[in-house]
Amino acid sequence: MEKIFKKKYALILFVMLLCPFLLKAGLTVEQVVNKLDANFEGIKTYQANFEQEVKSEQFGRSLTKGSGEVFYSKPGKMVWRYNQPEEHWYITNGQILWDYLPSMKQVMELKLDEALSGKLPKSFLFGMAKVSEQFNVAFAPNTESAKDGNYYLILTPKKEEERLVLGTLELTVDAKTFLVKEARLKDSLGNENLLKFSAIKVNPKIDEKMFTFKVPPGVEKISQ
To answer: Which residues, in sequence order, are CB contacts of 212 under 8 Å at separation 6+?
Structure first.
């Protein structure tokens, strides 16, 4: 369980970022959110490279750094493949979450709703809820229009219990491609989880078989 929760916010962050924001200078926050909701509905599959850094306010330094690839297929099917600092897989078919660490020859199998309990509304994870229904959205201070070639947005969960867990999400959106370049999640303790995306592909052809994990020979399965 400890290994899962070290990277727990990566999965949460990704679900929030599946929208190519069709933004234009001068749009109000409400118009941006409407575009966000509309485009989320249009994304069926998604693929990208990512870099991740988790920082601790308490320790004043980075706790973990990683990189790899992410794949998504609506509703709620995902693969996170970490290549650095070591090979590590998180795979879900929308119901089961597999945490596979090849170096340990071990895979942990959990129910997805239990693994993410209290972290994110399940309806949003499965692509059935609009961002406007779950979050309050605002431009970051002094960034009401494109700045430095980017848009800067802040998302805050509407429900108090979710704000206590998730904190706030800051998005950096490319003003030319209108895709999310960076996302920074700040929790209630001041910890930060930064994700940077590159080589993004929207609605690519993805083999659905990759979202169901088959235990390799010699690998121990632990069910929770």
So the answer is: 91, 93
What is the per-residue pLDDT across 74-117, written as a single tens digit (0 to 9) for each? 888 999 999 999 999 999 998 999 999 999 999 999 988 777 65
pTM of the model: 0.78
- Residue 148 CA to residue 142 CA, distance in Å, equals 12
Per the CB < 8 A criterion, the answer to whether 43 and 18 are in contact is: yes
Q: Burial-class residue 142 by CB neighbours within 10 Å (0-12, 13-18, 19+).
A: exposed
* Class at the top of the CATH hierarchy for domain 2-204: mainly beta
Distance CA 67, CA 50 (A): 5
Q: How many CB atoms lie within 10 A of CB 49?
A: 14
Domain spans in the chain, listed from the N-terminal domain onward:
2-204
User: What is the percent of the chain with per-residue pLDDT over 70, rounded to a whole number?
Assistant: 73
Cβ atoms 150, 140 nearer than 8 A = no
Query: CA-to-CA distance for 150 and 164, rounded, in angstroms?
Result: 28
* Nearest 10 degrees: Cα torsion 64, 152, 149, 25: 160
Q: Cα(22)–Cα(167) distance, rounded to whole angstroms?
A: 25
Instruction: Identify any residues that bridge with 137 across adjacent strands, giving them in sequence order.
Output: 155
User: Cα–chain-centroid distance for residue 199?
Assistant: 16
Strand partners, 193: 54, 185
The sign of the torsion formed by the CA atoms of 35, 41, 46, 49 equals: positive
